Amino acid sequence: MSKKNSVLKFGIFSAFLGGAYALTNYIYKLTSVPVQHTDESPDYDKAITAGRMFVRNHKDKQDMYINSIDQLKLHAAYIPASSNSHRYVILVHGIKDNHEYNGIYAQYYLSLDVNCLLPDLRGFGKSEGKYVGYGLDDRLDLMEWIYWIIKRDPEASILLHGMSMGAATVLMTTGEHLPENVKAAISDSAYSNLRKQFAKTYKTMKGSILPASVVVALARFIIYLRSGFDINDVRPIDAVSKSKTPTLFIHGDEDEVIDPQMCSRLYEAAKCDKQYCMILGSGHIHGIVTDPVNYWGKIRSFLSKTDF
User: Fold this and answer.
1) Do residues 170 and 200 both lie within one domain?
2) Distance separating alpha carbons of residues 273 and 217, to the nearest angstrom
3) Domain that holds residue 226
4) So which residues are the signal peptide here (predicted)?
5) pTM as predicted
6) Is the domain of 84 the same as that of 225?
7) What is the pLDDT of residues 190-228, one digit of tens each?
8) 59-77: burial string, b at 16+ Cβ within 10 Å, e else
9) How far apart (Å, rounded) are the C-alpha atoms in residues 220 and 225?
10) Which among 10, 24, 27, 247 is least surrounded, fewest beta carbons within 10 Å?
């Protein structure tokens, strides 16, 4: 082999490695680096913004901190009910957001005399963390918050209510062995399987030239290498098949982010007491503003049939 050919092949190999490194870095940044919500990031509805301000300025809001099992400092906002209520809801936000998103939900639960705990998932808001957990590590964090409540109030009756990635976190949590204090769960627009969700999201992106299977495989590899978990393990659909927690599955029929059929599959797979609610005309996690009467009516009906 001539020296010229060797140099050419080495150049091609180096370019390939450089391109692969750049691509995996891009995929990791896109999928796994937490993006913080700011006041310059517009909400999809003014009611969501009003909810943020409700939490931010609430006179009784308290900032609470715990440590995760891997020693991250986790934050939550806690707003007590007006009376000595033993009912609590843990409201779990989705990706690219923080606890303030759930202010609109907290307003309603407080009107029902329910104490509200609004955690920042790891990597978001005031919680430490360098990567998006998609519900896998977050389920363990949520369990720590559950025990935080029980330690304060052994008579606590706890509801878990999550949106999008927060809903997946809630479902993953219900697949664990939970204390009897956890009475019910509400999943609003969860994915059933992270690998399939990655593929679906990639196919909707502009410039998606490579086959989805290749990009998802690269994402799986780089996330495992840098974040330490396998996206194939993020399967809320497996968690609900083990759950004993009564669960309400909510989804919008016009959701273009997470396929509404994923909600149907989750519902079918669940072995716990369960109910299903499709919000007509609603996009991704928009049910709360698209049809609040139906949204809260279904939740009240569901909770009336639980021990919460």
Assistant:
1) no
2) 35
3) 194-233
4) none
5) 0.93
6) no
7) 999 999 999 999 998 887 788 999 999 999 999 999 999
8) eebeebebebeeebebbbb
9) 9
10) 10
